[in-house]
Amino acid sequence: SVGLLMGAAIASPLWYLSSFWSGWSALARDYRATAPWKGPRWRSSTSSLAGGPGFHMGIHSGTGLGQTRPTGASYGGFVAVGADETGLHLSAVVRLWHPTLLIPWDHVQMEVPANNRNMSPHQIYVGRDPVVCLSMPERIANRIAPAMLRSRAV
User: Fold this and answer.
1) Three-state SS for 131?
2) Which of 7, 51, 74, 114 is the residue whose CA sits 20 to 30 A from 95?
3) CB neighbours of 8 closer than 8 A, spacing ≥ 6?
4) Other residues' Cβ atoms within 10 Å of the Cβ of residue 111
5) Predicted confidence (pLDDT) per residue in 82-131, tens digit
6) pTM for the whole structure
């Protein structure tokens, strides 16, 4: 029990800081979900360091979309991603300082890398100010894209 308390004492401040590094807290100001998500959700099956195939999120600092990979936080399998006609849904496994988000499709841009291999991260840019970049494995991006395309066809 002492080890559990020490682990929580170390993890809690890091989880708090990750909400700022990743841009999650900035997105929560505009896109906090008001109802529970009822649609399908997917998680990255891997934990990763930034640059690996897992889920990475950070405030975009490039001169144009796709110009730079953001600094931020790698969440690995700790974020569930969902999509339907209302928008992009993000929920953290540990909700402390990470409220559930629902981002409408008109505030989402998706970029597919030119060297589209099985594990290439797809970049999704969300928000207005600041813009937050999400990098995720192709298999998750491929599940999000149809919902985004359907919403834009209407």
Assistant:
1) coil
2) 51
3) none
4) 14
5) 999 899 999 988 777 889 999 999 999 887 666 655 445 577 888 877 78
6) 0.77
